[in-house]
């Protein structure tokens, strides 16, 4: 299992408490924690992390500060008068159950990726998380494009099998439909 994944799972509550210093919105805290994990996990695939807990909290702090700066710099436009009272009803709000399911799907996918062989995991992350083309991945890792294709295919198959074995809902499955890679994090079409 990935060191970052282990540290994240052990410190998820503490990480969210830490992020509460920057924002009070529970949704923002959950989003920042997930983004923190994804970025730290992707960074771990490029090089070894000596102090994973400190690295995770540093990534979280940087993400939170960037988000605060982005919000401070956002232009504020007047909304004007709304004659419709339905404006206050937000039917797009995600149910708590859906949010919990989403967190579990992310954990299961991270475990599935962590169970891949190291080179396969690296290729799979470069493709799905960073959206690199097969040629870019091949050049970066000094391997053939065919090897990249094989690693992605193996990654897809093993992640699908892992998700099925853990009983994850069907919409979490990693899909290769239409030549693309689809995960809860990102959907990428073949180049």
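Sequence proposed for the structure above (191 residues):
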């Amino acid at each position: 299992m990935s060191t970052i994944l282990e540290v994240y799972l052990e410190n998820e509550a503490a990480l969210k408490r830490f992020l509460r210093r920057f924002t009070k919105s529970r949704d923002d805290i959950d989003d920042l924690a997930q983004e923190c994990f994804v970025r730290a996990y992707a960074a771990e695939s490029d090089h070894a992390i000596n102090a994973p807990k400190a690295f995770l909290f540093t990534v979280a702090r940087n993400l939170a500060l960037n988000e605060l700066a982005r919000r401070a710099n956002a232009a504020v436009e007047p909304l004007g008068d709304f004659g419709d009272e339905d404006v206050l009803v937000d039917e797009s709000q995600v149910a708590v159950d859906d949010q919990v399911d989403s967190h579990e799907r992310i954990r299961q996918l991270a475990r599935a990726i962590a169970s891949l062989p190291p080179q396969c995991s690296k290729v799979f992350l470069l493709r799905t998380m960073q959206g690199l083309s097969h040629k870019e991945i091949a050049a970066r890792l000094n391997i053939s494009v065919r090897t990249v294709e094989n690693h992605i295919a193996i990654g897809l198959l093993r992640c699908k099998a892992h998700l099925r074995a853990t009983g994850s809902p069907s919409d979490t499955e990693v899909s290769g439909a239409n030549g693309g890679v689809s995960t809860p994090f990102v959907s990428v079409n073949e180049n």
